[in-house]
Amino acid sequence: MPAEGAERSVKHFLNSAMLAPNVMTVPVDPGIVDALAPLAVSPDPAQYASHHPGWNSDIRWISPRTEAGFAPFDAAFATLGIADHVRPYLDLEREVRLYAGFFVVRSRCEAPDFHRDWIDTGNEAFTLLTPIGAAPGGFGLLYRTLTGEIAEYDYCPGEAILFGDNFVHSTRPGQSSDPVALLCFNFGTDKIEHWPRIRTTAAYQGELVRRPDGTYERRATVA
């Protein structure tokens, strides 16, 4: 049996077109995504919470407070077939688990805030982002290539960007007269032994988070 480090290394992959690690673009049905638009525009405060992470923008994360609020994200995740794209990279017992579904909403960004969603999880967790409605002009994604250059990705209806460990990225600075909304999923392994590493991100991005074992826990802190 290979050592733990070797076992993890074979699970990482390179996107040669983007020249970046552990990132891919995948097709999604825009009709399924856009069906969630009413929740992003007018979320029921009894079911959904809004948090501002304090970055260089007016970004808000709108996430479920209750299991009933979580259900539409869970249904969309399953119907879109997102699990199929990452199953080969995950240590699974039975199924790919959705940890959190939420909306990323913003109308301005003053400066980049480069970060990694996942660090040293062994690609046991992933993030997916896709636009709701029309393409968000002026609000693309910046990312760092393996050569250290800054490249751009433009969100496109019908396509999602999906990334795991060590993908360095940021919102591209810009401004829009109307708020721009993205659908975001955090998901990955259903084995609870991986949760300590995954939790360092997943437990802070949604009001209600589902663990790999299927149980729920509340947001670790409020930003």
Can you walk through the features of this model?
- It is globular and about 45 Å long.
- The protein contains six helices and 15 strands.
- The protein is α+β, with helices and mostly antiparallel strands.
- Helices cover 20% and strands 35% of the residues.
- Strand 14 and strand 15 form a beta hairpin.
- The strands form four sheets. Strands 3-11-8-13-6-5-4 form a seven-stranded antiparallel β-sheet. Strands 7-12-9-10 form a four-stranded antiparallel β-sheet, with no helix packed on it. A two-stranded antiparallel ribbon has the order 1-2.
List the helices and strands and how they pair.
Layout: H1 4-9, E1 14-15, E2 20-21, E3 23-27, H2 30-34, H3 37-41, E4 48-51, E5 60-64, H4 67-80, H5 83-86, E6 97-109, E7 115-116, E8 125-131, E9 141-144, E10 150-153, E11 159-163, E12 168-171, E13 174-188, H6 195-205, E14 208-210, E15 216-218
Antiparallel strand pairs: 1-2, 3-11, 4-5, 5-6, 6-13, 7-12, 8-11, 8-13, 9-10, 9-12, 14-15
Brief summary of the model shown:
20% of the residues lie in helices and 35% in strands. It has 6 helices and 15 strands. Strands 3-11-8-13-6-5-4 form a 7-stranded antiparallel β-sheet. A 4-stranded antiparallel β-sheet has the order 7-12-9-10, with no helix packed on it. Strands 1-2 form a two-stranded antiparallel sheet.
